[in-house]
Write a structure and sequence with these properties.
Blueprint (H helix, E strand, L loop, with lengths): L4 E3 L4 H6 L3 E3 L5 H6 L7 E4 L8 E2 L4 E4 L4 H6 L5 H8 L4 H6 L2 H5 L6 H4 L41 H7 L3 E6 L2 E6 H4 L18 E7 L8 E6 L10 E10 L2 E10 L6 E2 L1 H7 L6 H8 L14 H20 L2
Parallel strand pairs: 1-3, 2-3
Antiparallel strand pairs: 4-5, 5-8, 6-7, 6-8, 9-10, 10-11, 11-12
């Protein structure tokens, strides 16, 4: 780790006025600084900022500095969000990591984290060795010739499924962006991962009210049960009435370069019986546009099975 200056602003205004890299829980930033993937000259500890609180009175509002563990335990949080958080990391990490920091965490691609290898995210124009190299964990959706790295956040998948927004503060004032629009596909510029402008700060996560999202879940498939990153995950909410699907929300992780909303699957589910045949027919659309690499073709079938498993779990709960 290279030397850096540490300051601790106590107001949002002071934080925005001070150039530097924001530090909350530090579970991603400090890790990458130790690897010299990130080498900020100044780090701003923002834990004293008034960006906490969970309000579930009408929808859900979560301060950006709320810890993952506290959010997961809150009774007003939708099950899909709570479960995604609980499956994200150990209790120790959940007690440290902030929701804002989790949404901004960097990819776990081994090439990105190894400064001895090329990586277009880390050094634009240097290449993407994952395309022809070790790519079992990489994306099959939303990829480009420049990058095939998967997005790491579990809870971002759940939030995208529920049409969540992030409130951002910067030198030009505040703005609100849908989380699904906040993340950028790699395209020709994989180093630009999101819509966060220089000096901007996530201040709040806002989830619209969706009463039937109380029937929701997050299924995560991974190589080991204990806090591994996803090979594939599915965030699903279902509105089932009289044994038919009235509405649905479906997003997936571990298979795409951003949290991946599956609107075609949602459309195919609406109006259909809440049963295995309908679920399998709808999820046949899930892998449209997939471009498997040499070692991750299994993710195409795994993607469909993971969604069916989540849908089946919710349908069983409705009986």
């Amino acid at each position: 780790m290279r030397p850096f200056e540490l300051t601790a602003p106590t107001t949002v205004e002071a934080a925005l006025a001070t150039p530097g890299t924001f530090l909350a829980g530090g579970t991603t930033l400090v890790d990458l600084m130790k690897l010299n993937v990130l080498t900020p000259p100044r780090v701003l500890d923002i834990n004293a900022l008034p960006l906490r609180g969970i309000d579930a009175a009408d929808g859900l509002r979560i301060g950006a500095l709320e810890r993952m563990g506290d959010i997961a335990a809150h009774p007003g949080v939708y099950p899909v969000i709570s479960r995604a958080l609980l499956l994200s990391a150990s209790q120790q990490l959940r007690n440290m990591a902030s929701i804002g920091g989790n949404l901004l965490q960097r990819t776990r691609c081994s090439y990105f984290r190894d400064v001895a290898t090329p990586c277009n995210k880390r050094e634009p124009g240097s290449g993407c060795p994952a395309i022809s190299g070790a790519n079992r964990m990489h994306a099959v959706l939303g990829t480009s010739e420049k990058c095939v790295a998967t997005h790491a956040s579990d809870v971002a998948v759940a939030l995208v499924a529920l049409d969540a927004e992030v409130r951002l503060a910067g030198s030009d004032g505040e703005r609100v962006v849908k989380l699904a629009d906040f993340y950028r596909l790699p395209g020709e510029t994989p180093e630009v991962e999101n819509d966060l402008r220089p000096g901007e700060l996530i201040t709040e996560v806002v989830v619209p009210r969706l009463d039937w999202a109380t029937r929701s879940t997050y299924v995560k498939v991974r190589d080991r049960q204990s806090y591994e990153f996803a090979l594939c995950s599915a965030a699903v909410a279902l509105d089932i009435r009289d044994s038919r699907v009235v509405d649905a929300r479906v997003a997936v992780g571990g298979v795409a370069t951003v949290p991946w909303r599956l609107r075609a699957v949602e459309d195919a589910l609406r109006g259909e019986p809440a049963g295995l045949a309908s679920f399998e027919a709808a999820t046949a659309l899930a892998a449209e546009g997939a471009e498997p690499l040499s070692a991750n073709g299994f993710k195409v079938a795994l993607l469909k099975r993971t969604i069916v498993r989540a849908l089946h779990e919710l349908a069983e709960e409705s009986h």
